[in-house]
Amino acid sequence: MPGQRSSINSFEARDYIRCILKFLISPIYFCMELLASYTGIFMFNSNMAFWHLLPICSISFSYLFYNSVEEMRENKIFSYYLLSFSVFLFLLLLISPVLPQKIQSLTQVRIGLSGMVLSVNSQIFCIFAERRKEFDLNTIRIIDAVSIWILIFSYILFFNLCTRVYIRLPVKMMPFSFGVKQYVKVIAVLHLIYAIAFIIGLESNNQNYHLKILVSSFLIFCSFFICVDAYSMIFTDQYLLCEHRETKEDFETKKPIGGTICHVAIRRSFNKRKDLGDLPADFQYDDDIKLHPKWYTEYVPFCMA
């Protein structure tokens, strides 16, 4: 399996078939599973949502907000969009060496996920409002372009690929582990209502109607997973600081299991309680974390395995 970095000699026929099916269904998922570390991608569904959102949002911009190539050429905003996109990516390359932190911050994770929620839903609004008399078309185009930049920047705050120590929830607190959590069901129902309301409210006489339905449905689908992750991290009362694991097998078998370095409790949450529940004896409070010095000094970026 790509995600487990299995030796090519140990592959069986069914493994090849499984890889081919994954590639055909989602080349992006296949590539991320093949190239990225297990803990860098698969601890949060928002990682996979982002890497599917980015190309679709960037490419669909010209098709959703312009009816013809001539309109694109005549409109300066599209030219500014392409120019700013190039400049933005260039600046990211310049500052990327100083962005990673040795120890991932819960605040950054929360801000990053919140920004991604805002960005995706801003793009959904732009699709809904495009060509409506109540809204200026050029303003909508600008908002959508800015939303894409916000999505990228927010993900940079959230992702953990280049951190020495990353944050994740305990397995029992993950949204889809040990049964689907109640808040996940509520968010799912809200997004279902959201999708139905969008389809009903969208003007069907627009020439890009079917494309809008397709793209907006995908955006709402991704919004669901990002909202679930955002809720779980914003309202959690504890989390784990972990070292990265390259493969799922390492994550499950290599000690410490799951790469857990420290179990962290959020003091503000536990101050309101009479007992500490099932926290381990060696837990630390979030405002007084003390890790071994090696986690601060021996920093080797773990971006791509």
Structural key phrases:
305 residues; mainly alpha; 4-stranded mixed beta sheet; 13 helices; 4 strands
Structure explained in plain terms:
The protein is mainly alpha-helical and 305 residues long. 59% of the residues lie in helices and 6% in strands. It has helices spanning 13-25, 27-35, 38-41, 45-65, 69-74, 76-95, 106-129, 137-158, 182-201, 209-234, 248-253, 267-270, 294-297, and strands at 165-168, 238-243, 260-265, 284-285. It has a four-stranded mixed beta sheet with strand order 1-2-3-4. Helix 12 links the parallel strand 3 and strand 4 (284-285). Helix 4 packs antiparallel against helix 8, helix 6 (76-95) runs parallel beside helix 8 (137-158) and helix 7 packs antiparallel against helix 8. The longest helix is centred in the C-terminal third of the chain and has 26 residues, at 209-234. It is globular and about 65 Å long. Keywords: Membrane, Transmembrane, Transmembrane helix. The chain crosses the membrane at residues 20-43, 49-66, 78-99, 111-130, 142-167, 182-202, 214-235.
What is the end-to-end distance? Answer: 15 Å
Radius of gyration: 22 Å
The count of DSSP E runs of length 2 or more, i.e. the number of strands, is: 4
Shape: globular
Going across the biggest sheet, name each strand in turn: 1-2-3-4
Helix content range of the residues, please? 55-70%
Determine the number of helices (DSSP H or I, runs of at least 4 residues).
13
Please indicate the percent range of residues in DSSP E strands (runs of 2 or more): 5-15%
Main beta-sheet annotation: 4 strands, mixed
Sheet/helix structural class: mainly alpha
What is the N-to-C succession of helices and strands?
HHHHHHHHEHHEHEHEH
Integer average pLDDT: 83
Uncertain regions: pLDDT < 50 for 5+ in a row?
Answer: none
